[in-house]
Amino acid sequence: MTDELQAGSAAADPPGSTGAAPAVAQPLLVVRDLVVQFALPGAFGMGRSGRVVKAVDGVSLDLARRETLGLVGESGSGKTTTGRAIVRLLDPTSGSIRFDGTEIATLKGEALRLMRPRFQMIFQDPYSSLNPRMTVGAIVGEPLEIHGMGDAAARRVRVAELLDVVGIPGQAINRYPHEFSGGQRQRIGIARALALNPDLVVADEPISALDVSIRAQILKLLERLQAELGLAYLVVAHDLAAVRRVSHRVAVMYLGRIVEIAPTASLYALPRHPYTVALLSAVPIPDPAVQRGRRRIILTGEIPNPSAPPPGCHFHTRCWLYQRLGTPERCRTEAPPLTDSAPDHRVACHFTDEVSDAGARMQSPGSG
Amino acid sequence: MTDLLTVDDLVVRFRTHDHTIHAVNGVSFAMEAGETLALVGESGCGKSVTSLAITRLLPQPAGRIEGGRIEFEGRSLLDLPADEMLSVRGPAIAMIFQDPLTSLNPVLTIGKQMTEGMREHRGMSRADAWARAAELLQMVGIGDAERRLKSYPHQMSGGMRQRVMIAMALALTPRLLIADEPTTALDVTIQAQVMDLIRDLASSTGTAVLLITHDLGVVADMTQRVCVMYAGFVVETATTDELFARPRHPYTVGLLRSISRIDADDTGELRPIEGVPPEQSRPPVGCPFAPRCAWRLPQCWTENPPLVTTGEGPVVRTGTDASHLLACHNPATPDEVAVGVPMRPGFRAAPRPTGGGTPGSRRGPGGSPGVAGRPGDSEDLRHERGLVEAAQDVGGADLIGRPLIRNIETPDPDHPERRGDQ
Question: Which pTM was predicted?
Answer without folding.
Answer: 0.82
